[in-house]
Amino acid sequence: MTRKESLQLFEDQKVRTVWDDEQEKWYFAIVDVVGILTDNDYQGARNYWKVLKNRLIKEGNETVTNCNQLKLRAADGKMRLTDVADTEQLFRIIQSIPSPKAEPFKQWMAQVASDRIDQMQDPELSIEQAMQDYKRLGYSDNWINQRIRSIEVRKELTDEWQRGGVSGMQYASLTDIITKEWSGRTTKQYKQLKGLKKENLRDNMTNVKLALNTLAEASAARRRTPLT
C-alpha cells in the first residue's frame, strides 16, 4: 500500500492531503479544512476542532470515531500525527461547521477527486502533478527529478513482475530483496531506522539513496524473471 502526501490549494490556502493507492481514497487534514472554513489560524483551528470533535464524540457521531490519524509534515517541517478524514467523512464534518465557504469547499473537493481520475487515465498528468506536489513540499529540483525517475523505474519493474506471474505479498517480498541488496536492510527495517510508520520510504530518502534504489530496481527490471 502506498500513501502519497501532497499539498492542495483552495483559494490560495494550503490543505494537506494524502492519496491512498490501495483504497483509492483522498484523506484531508481536518485542521487545515477547519482553518479555512472558520477563518482561523492554525492554533485557532486546532482549538475549534478539539471542541467540535469532543462534542461530536459525546453525541455518538461515528464519523469522528472512524477518523484516522496519519503523520503529515507540519509547519516546522517535522512529521506529526494529524487527524484526517476521507471525502465522505469530511462532508459530514463540514455539515457541523457553519460557514459560507462550506459549499465552495465541497465543490473543490469534488474537483480534486475528478482531477485524480484524470491523472490515473493519463500518466503524464500524474507525473506533472507529482512534480508540483514535491515542489510545494520543499524538495529540491534535483531530488524531484531523481524521485520521478524512481517512480518510472518502479512502474517498469512491477509491470515486469506482473508479466512474470507475481501477485499479492510477493511484490513486498521481492522489494525487500532489492532493498536489502543495496542498503543491507529490509524495507521494514529501513523505515524503522528512519522512524517512519505509514509514510512513503522513498519520499524520505536522500538523493544518493534514491539513486542507489533506482539503480537496483532498474537492474532487476532487466532480468528475465523476477526471482533470478
UniProtKB/TrEMBL annotation:
Domain Bro-N stretches: 14-115
Pfam family, one: Bro-N
Name the UniProt record assigns to this protein: Bro-N domain-containing protein
